[in-house]
Amino acid sequence: MKIDLTDTTSGQINAALMKARRATGSPAVGMVLTLVLVTDEGTHYDALRAASEASKEHPSRILVVVRRPGRSPRDRARARMDAEVRVGGETGAGETVLLRLHGELAAHSYSAVLPLLLPDAPVVVWWPEDAPERPASDPLGALAQRRITDMAAAEDPVACLARREAGYAPGDTDLAWTRITPWRSMLASALDQRHAPVTGAVVEGEEHNPSTELLALWLADRLGVPVRRVLSAGPGITGVRLYTADGEICLDRPDGSLAELAVPGQPERHVALHRRDTPELIAEELRRLDPDEAYASALRFGVARLEHLPAAAAAAADDATGDGDGTVEAAAATEADAGAKPAGRARAGRARSAKAGRAGKGEAADAATGGDAAGSGEATA
């Protein structure tokens, strides 16, 4: 059911919501949270569609705030609110209210949103684009237990990473961090299988990809080892290598969907590691509303330590382990190197696995042969 309201008030919107619920045969409120989207006319459709998909897993009242301050002084001086109420149909078990705030009211959106929040229910605010530098200090952000931003939508995502660190408050999170959840789970699982100490790591990904930076910071923070950031052609994160005493743990995803995991002493295997859509990311964020301590620790650990080396230094840094605990180095890789590395790493991984297996049996001659094979595999990378 859809109800259009022009030049309305929050009281009339609440009355329309009650009317729509009764008309659809569900007068009781069965929603678990209020999700506030702060967007504009150009992006509100895609954001609302993503929120509606996530609402199927987490029934919620979705409030879409579209600010239209106006261009002329006359338009800016006039305050008006138009609303569109949707219940049932595509909204599922939830409700959607699209608020268009005109004129002076656009600068006071919290006063229009506050009366429409579900009582005694958590509030989540999501800025798909143009998020404030300090989300917790924003009037709408102050209403929420969880504040979601997306660094990937910023003009300079890496510079935005530093701003997120400076403006962080408990309850803040970012979809760039949510995107690396499968990577973090896969790497943690791989380390659980090999209890050898990690001595260093390399993270490869696109140049302007904040998720790659966050993954490097997380590894440096949690492992306390040098982590090097290498640029690749993408898409997204393309590979992670962890150096251990038993060999190299390698997780490669050159095509953005299927990854190959190589662990010393085990056969290589393919794992699903596709790039997830926004509805999946929002649904994951709505599963937990407490402060994300791992995200906060990664932000605070390494943003100021990121060091981007020139392209000429990439080859020289390729064999270096880095100086100092948890130092994050960024090195640029040539396109030829980026294209050749996946196959070379796969051969090197197989050679190291063979070496580890033979060395475990105490056959010195075979171990030496495995070392030669590993060296040959590295030479082709």
Automatic annotation (TrEMBL):
Q: Where does the record place Low complexity bias?
A: 334-346, 365-381
Residues annotated as signal peptide: none
Region Disordered: list its residue ranges.
334-381
Domain Glucose-6-phosphate dehydrogenase assembly protein OpcA C-terminal per the UniProt entry, residue ranges:
170-299
Under the heading InterPro entries, the entry gives:
G6PDH_assembly_OpcA (IPR004555), OpcA_G6PD_C (IPR046802), OpcA_G6PD_N (IPR046801)
Q: Which residues form the Glucose-6-phosphate dehydrogenase assembly protein OpcA N-terminal domain?
A: 51-165
The name this protein goes by in its record: Glucose-6-phosphate dehydrogenase assembly protein OpcA
Source species, please?
Streptomyces lonarensis
Tell me the lineage of the source organism: Bacteria, Bacillati, Actinomycetota, Actinomycetes, Kitasatosporales
